[in-house]
Amino acid sequence: MGFNKVYVLGVGGLPPSTSMRELDFREATFEAAVRAYADAGVEPDEVEGLFSAEQDFVEGISIADEYTPDQVGTRLKFNMLVAGDFLEALFHAYMALRSGMMELAVVESHARPSEIENYNDVLRSSLDPHCLRPLLADPYVLLGLDARAFLRSSGCTTHDLSSVAAKNSRNAALSGGPYGEEVTAEQLEEDPFLYEPLRRRHVARFSDYVAVVVLGTEKWGRRSDRAVELAMVWSSGTTSAAHQWMRSWGKMEWVGAALDRVRSAIGTNPIRAVDLIEFTEFSAHQELQFLSAMLGSDGEAVRMLRAGELDPGSTLPLNPSGGCIGNGNSLNSSGARAFVGAVRQLRGEAGRVQVRGARAAIVGSLHSEISDSGTLAFLRTGDAA
Amino acid sequence: MRRVAIVGAGMTDFRSMLPHSSPEMIREAVKRCLDDVGSLSIRYVDGVLCASAPDAFDGYHDKVSIANEAAGAIGKPITRVFVGGGSGVAAAVAGWYHVASGLFDTLLVVAWEKMSPPYPHAQKLFQTIFEPVIEQPLGPNLIWIFALEMRRYMEAHNLTKELIAEVAVKNKANALDHPHAQLGARITVQDVLNSEVMVWPVNRLDISPTSDGAVAILLASEQEARKLTDTPVWIDGVATCLDSQYWTNRDLAFPYYVYLAAQRAYRMAGIVNPLKEVDVWEPYDPFTYKELHHLDGLLGRPGLAPKLLKEGQLHRDGDHPASPSGGLLGVGNPIAAAGLMKVAELYWQLSGRAGKRQVPNAYVGVAQAWGDLMQVGTVVVCRR
Amino acid sequence: MRARLVRFAPETLSGLDGPLAELLSRAVAEVGDGREGAWTKALQEVRGRTEFELPAELLVTPYLLDYRYRRSTGIAMTRFLQGLREGKFVGTRCTGCGRVLIPPRTFCEWCFRRVDEWIEHSGEGEVATYSIAHIGTNPKVRLPRPEPIAVIWFEGTKVIRPNSSTVAHAAGILHRLGEVEPSEIEIGMKVRPVWKPKEERTGSITDVLYFAPLRG
Ligand SMILES: [Zn+2]
Q: Are C49 and C138 found together in one domain?
């Protein structure tokens, strides 16, 4: 039985920023959608469905999908809200297009942490109310617990975490990310601890973001020489984030299962096939954890970091966009920013952070800052595909 | 397109204040579903798709984050979809494309709702579904918008409250035969009219209750379905349709988005004349008038459903049985779970497992849910 | 039943109207959570009907969800709210479909195009549909005075288009009705906005007190 191939036809977003206050969320999303349609060269009328990634308490509105269709041009069309990161909504759109139920769809996500006065309270209420909420005033301390366990098992040091954060800050300084800065690991080592062993700039600060991505089957993909193939998306869960006491500290267990599926879909180990990786590291240790899980080796990840092999222009650029540390934590839209960055790379439109000759990329996103669940997407251009 | 079947279903009791926690409800529904497929091992299941309506009810942000262990999703994909009241049927739609995409051979679809924790009442939370700048300051509640829509619907077709009340009489009586029902009862039209006025023209007995509960169904590809059961029920049409957020800008008399969703699902399933071809209807009935309003949309004929009701054709022994399960008015309304219960009912009806509720000669069924701000229609068409 | 009682947070009570807050405070003082009996009853009812062995009693963990937002109103809604402060309804008009858009937006969802023609409307219109609320957000508490609510459609904005088939569209908003007995309200009744005194307006939808029948 034949299943459709899926292509990224166009992307549109507003640059991540510390505040998008001049537009309301509808107006900002409309701007992103207009750009995405122009980029894809399709008419909004032709789109058959919308997949959006929103969370109620991030929006401050219960049933967040009520307020999605008008500004992306999908009134009276198919709609599905996926309550998770952008890549999870992308996963759903990918399946719907593969199945043949539709040929052209948009995926939308936006988040405005600048409009939430007490986001940490929101995140805290994803925890068990009986055993965890009364104990943890700030849920981010869980990142500290996880980082400590990772350092212990991997042999990394806090200096390595500073190297990750410095790399991403420098990359973002080139890409225009709101937290980009020319900074060294040594300078970051001066930062005070927030959640030991995590220092202040080891943890991503917040930014507002919105993006709209246009996906189509080969019928549409054939029409465009800029289309990027979305070869596989796979999501994987482990223990529930609410029940943190059960998780494997220091590891990203979800990556293994997702990687297996991507490997069997593309017929090779994706890590050997890609030219760059974008990942939503909400904290510096998560980037190394992710890479370790992808490589199946803690030691190799650290070695590559220390040897500068993750820098732009080297063996395996990791977060050439600057990641969440350089661009900000845009909550459930963080994966969208990473994804748009990877698409621009594969089209050779990444400007000052362009990875030369990039033809395949992996995008990874965590379900949330404190969750050991996530999603992988594998992208490649026409000639790699 | 790859064909997708429902091969099993299970549910908890629907109750106000079920003593179970949400993971316990999920676990119970999943276990009953797997037991229904010959005590299938959870290891056989490729992934999980969840649905649960506003996070506020459970009191959790990101509430899929409680389900992984209970649904057996460790190391598997588990995502949550959510379109307000339409979530339960949307879950079946999303579950369909999981399997139809070729990426999953078996998939658990789980929906749950825990509405009893909010105190003093879940209605307070419904205020947060309204537009935050120009509607929330007016202090609206959910029943307001139903009352506005019901009033408009009554005006458009000159309907009486007496006729609309018959939906409650019918569905609560149907629910007497449902083993998990919360509010099965033999009542009269006069009982409905005599119950307290909540938001005129809506009386207490026009409204489904707040409930806790969970439902699970197992989906399978054609090849797997043939191995797992002799009585697969095929999902042959799926659709959702979302109208504009500017609900005060359109006439509420006809749910055009439900009509469009139904038309798309019929086209996919090859249904030309739904009134003739569909044997069992499970339209969404959180309020009495909504069953009629939605059937109007599903049939594409404004004002037809009230006529069918008057003629007794929507009863279980009528020509067009609607909500033979007992619906939300009778079985209960744990939002997302209630919608998926309607899909499960199609499975039970079309595979001949509906017991005392069985509609004779049931080959084709339609389940539908509705939600957001009177805005989204979700539809599945099933076949034996 | 040894359940801990759930109390209203002071912020919750202070956010309510005086009489309602008083009523709820009293209810809590008199009957506590008011639901221990119901929980116990529910526990008995499902005993033996579930795979779980149920405990003899249930405990309750109280907590308050308290999230605070400061929402940007953007371009269109800011001008709308400013208009309310000045006693008028500000909308936009789409040159594609010709519709007047209230609440205003900077794009038209029918035509998916940018919209930047601004218009002002007196706010006179008709009742598109209405209802009488006897309860607020707690169905167990009856409002001392039932409250008429309505969707108001603004005069001269109604359109019926083939792409919306049987559905009429118009510029319109949700609001309350006043200066009218519930029994006198009808669909199609002509109404006008009744504004707060100018000095009390803040740029909120509540700058309009209610809509009243347009008499004479
Ligand atoms: Zn227009």
A: no
How many distinct structural domains can be found in chain A?
A: 1
Residue-number span of the structural domain to which C18 is assigned: 4-60
Tell me whether residue C69 is in a domain.
no
Strands (E), A60-156: 78-82, 104-111
Which of A20, A70, A120, A136 has the highest number of chain C CBs within 10 A, making it the mutation to test binding with C?
A70
- May I ask the CATH class of domain B4-119+209-383? alpha beta
In a domain, C196, yes or no: yes
Are C26 and C84 contained in the same domain?
Answer: no
* Bridge partner residues of B51 (DSSP): B81, B111
Residues with CB under 5 Å of ion ligand 1 are C 94, 96-97, 108, 110-111
Quickly count: other Cβ atoms within 10 Å of residue B10's Cβ: 22
Cα C106 to ligand 1 centroid, rounded to whole Å:
11
Q: A23 CA to middle of ligand 1, Å?
A: 20
- pLDDT in tens for each of the 385 residues of chain A? 689 999 999 999 999 999 998 999 999 999 999 999 999 999 999 999 999 999 999 998 888 889 999 999 999 999 999 999 999 999 999 999 999 999 999 999 999 999 999 999 999 999 998 889 888 889 999 999 999 999 999 999 999 999 999 999 999 999 999 999 999 999 999 999 999 999 999 999 999 999 999 999 999 999 998 999 999 999 999 999 999 988 999 999 999 999 999 999 999 999 999 999 999 999 999 999 999 999 999 899 999 999 999 999 999 999 999 999 999 999 999 999 999 999 999 999 999 999 999 999 999 999 999 999 999 999 999 755 5
Residue C136 sits in the same domain as residue C209: yes
φ and ψ of A334, to 5 deg: -60, -40
Q: What is the ipTM of this complex?
A: 0.97
Q: Could you tell me the pTM of the whole model?
A: 0.95
- The count of other CB atoms within 10 Å of the CB of residue A261 is 18
Distances (CA, A) of B45 to B33, B42, C101: 12, 5, 49
CA–CA dist B347, B235 (Å, integer): 10
Residues C101 and C21 in one domain: no
Contact B79 A123 (CB under 8 A): no
At A171 the three-state DSSP class reads helix
Tell me which residue of B279, B350, B274 sits closest to B6, measured CA to CA: B350
Strand-pair partners of C210: C194
Q: Are residues C154 and C203 in the same domain?
A: yes
For every residue of chain C, which 3-state class applies, written as one string? CCCCCCCCCHHHHHCCCHHHHHHHHHHHHHHCCCCHHHHHHHHHHHCCCCCCCCCCCCCCCCCCCCCCECCCCHHHHHHHHHHHHCCCEEEEECCCCCCEECCCCCEECCCCEECCEEEEECCCEEEEEEEEEEECCCCCCEEEEEEEEEEEEECCCCEECHHHCCCEECCEEEEEECCCCHHHCCCCCEEEEEECCHHHCCCCHHHEEEEEECCC
CB neighbour list of residue B297: distance below 8 Å, 6 or more residues apart: B254, B255, B256, B257, B258, B259, B262, B377
Interface test with C, best of A14, A20, A30, A77 (most C CBs within 10 A): A30
